[in-house]
Design a protein that fits this description.
It is a single chain. The protein has helices spanning 39-47, 75-89, 108-119, 137-145, 150-159, 166-171, 198-210, 231-245; strands spanning 6-9, 17-23, 51-55, 96-106, 126-130, 185-190, 215-220. By secondary structure, it is α/β, with parallel strands linked by helices.
């Protein structure tokens, strides 16, 4: 029963236009402003015939608060992204093509995208990730939350550590459910990503292939987390992927 805010960028014209839902990376909710994190992509999509629907997530900008979100490992973000896709599918807005909907997640939002596609397969026609976090949630917990003072202690107090309760942590890792996925996936990652390791992307690619899924991993040699140099080429990869699957 939460209200989730966001921003929609629409191309000029009547449409109907295909839709790309955007799942942003981590930005401290205390400083986050609505629509933040995808300026380049929002502009490019709207200029190239796609509606960009940027989701703020719960606890962000004008969205309702969910005090349990962080201790719940932010799984609610995936629910917000799933519901955004369902809202598009059920929309009666005349400029929306509800039969052509993709999901693009960046960094933490990439991890959210993988969660969404295994929790509710088929909401999206295609999924794109940029510099995604790991599909093994233990990697993410150890990198960002385990030693984050009170938060790490609260999570372990509720669920046990990955070492003491591995069964729980397996249930929270989308990698263990990729066989459910129905969407083709394009993954974009820099080999020198200082935040989200390239090996995480490679492990996800292997898991998707082992599950018999359609996946392409595009690696940019020497590129970091924000892909400043190769972004122009990467968006061409996105364009070809969307042309094929939408």
């Amino acid at each position: 029963d939460l209200t989730i805010s966001g921003i929609m960028n629409k191309p000029r014209g009547k449409g109907p236009f295909p839709v790309v839902v955007l799942a942003h990376g981590y930005i401290d909710p205390a400083v986050y402003v609505t629509g933040q994190g995808f300026r380049r992509e929002q502009d490019w999509l709207a200029r190239n015939g796609y509606i960009a629907l940027h989701v703020d997530y719960r606890n962000h900008a004008g969205s309702d608060d969910d005090p349990s979100s962080d201790v719940a490992l932010r799984l609610g973000y995936a629910a917000d992204v799933i519901n955004a896709g369902l809202a598009v599918r059920n929309s009666s807005l005349p400029f929306i093509d509800a039969d052509r909907v993709a999901l693009l997640g960046r960094s933490m939002g990439g991890g959210v995208a993988f969660q969404a596609m295994v929790i509710k397969p088929g909401v999206y026609d295609a999924v794109i990730t940029y510099a995604s976090t790991s599909t093994d949630i233990v990697d993410n917990f150890n990198r960002w939350q385990r030693f984050d003072g009170n938060l790490g202690r609260r999570i372990i107090a509720r669920y046990g550590s990955p070492e003491s309760n591995p069964a729980f942590w397996r249930t929270r890792s989308s990698r263990n459910y990729l066989a459910r996925a129905t969407e083709p996936v394009l993954m974009i990652h820099g080999t020198r990503d200082e935040s989200c390791e390239i090996e995480w992307a490679r492990a996800t690619e292997r898991a998707l292939k082992q599950a018999g899924k359609e996946v392409t991993l595009v690696e940019y040699r020497g590129a970091g987390h924000y892909l400043y140099g190769p972004w122009t080429d990467s968006i061409r990869q996105v364009e070809r992927f969307l042309d094929t699957h939408l």
